[in-house]
Amino acid sequence: MDIEIHKNNLKKYIEEDMAFKEPLKNISDFDKYCYNHCLDIKEVLSELDKKENTINLMAEQLTTPVHSKKWVIDYFTNKVKEDIK
To answer: Which residues of the chain have pLDDT under 50?
Structure first.
């Protein structure tokens, strides 16, 4: 799934950026902005993980003999994509 690749890349970027920024005492306003932006991205990724877990739980509960768990997950994923457009 494309979003998984992007999430993993963002997580890696945040970890690298945070590791670099933490020890610095005097950082510029731009660096503070970037640091805060990384925190915002980290929060969004956390929310995405929560949503993904919710969808997985719903998929387990909504699985029927006719519709598999994968079908339910795909259905909700496509609904989200439609809502975004």
So the answer is: 1
Global model pTM greater than 0.70? no
If phi > 0 it is left, if psi is from -120 to 50 it is alpha, else beta; for residue 50 that is alpha
Taking the CA atoms of the chain, what radius of gyration do you get in angstroms? 18
Identify the pLDDT of residue 20: 59
CA 48 to chain CA centroid, nearest Å: 4
Which residues, 6+ apart, have CB-to-CB distance to 18 below 8 Å?
Answer: 35, 38
Computed over every residue of the chain, the mean pLDDT equals 75
Rounded CA gap, 8 and 43, in Å? Answer: 14
The first and second tokens of residue 84, run together, are: 């975004």
